[in-house]
User: Fold this.
Amino acid sequence: MADRPDERGLSIGDAVRFTHRGGTVDGHLYRRQGRRRLATVIDRKDRLWKVPEEALTPSAAPRRATMLTGTDAARARWRVGDRVAFADSDGARHTGKIVKLNPTQARVRSGRALWNVPYGGLSGTGSGKERARDGAERLTRIAALARELMDQHGLDAWTFAFLEAKRRLGDCNYRDRVIRVGRTHALEAGEAEIRDTILHEIAHALAGPEAKHGALWKATARRIGATPRASVYERKGR
Assistant:
């Protein structure tokens, strides 16, 4: 995509602040929501805030080079279809099955009811289908690898994050200066394939938005060790 930088120079990972109920909230730009002109800000306690973009002002605090939160790590333990247990606001215990993984809560079906449960409130039921989870460690490891590769290729002013879209392996956003790898891809693919995805997107960042998947991008991909084939990514929805 050929999005232009924010007119104030803000990109994902930059330190920002805004006013809320007479006080000041400090955090980092976490996500934009396009036409609605809303931004998501992550504060120092990893809480997410929806804020109109025009309400944000830059802060002098250090930028955040990697977007990986405690909620991301907790969410990575679970998959759709897992049997879980949780307590409601009155302390009553329920069991059910995860039907959807939202950014901060799991949607759980228990009997005929649907519950939105924070990931920290879930526990496994101990069924034979439960498997050991290394999701949090895996995301942390991939984020560290991406950061290392991005710094190695001069993208120290860019941020790394995970992408929610299930059918996309990764993307490169020039406006927000962020490289993302699909969360599902990160949790399910082999590490060699994930490394190639990261390098694929780094090649886009280096070649620029006009290069697309043309000769310049292919030459850049070869130079940094990525597979110079767009079709590998397009088949899964790039």
Remarks:
- The mean pLDDT is 86.
- The chain has six helices and 13 strands.
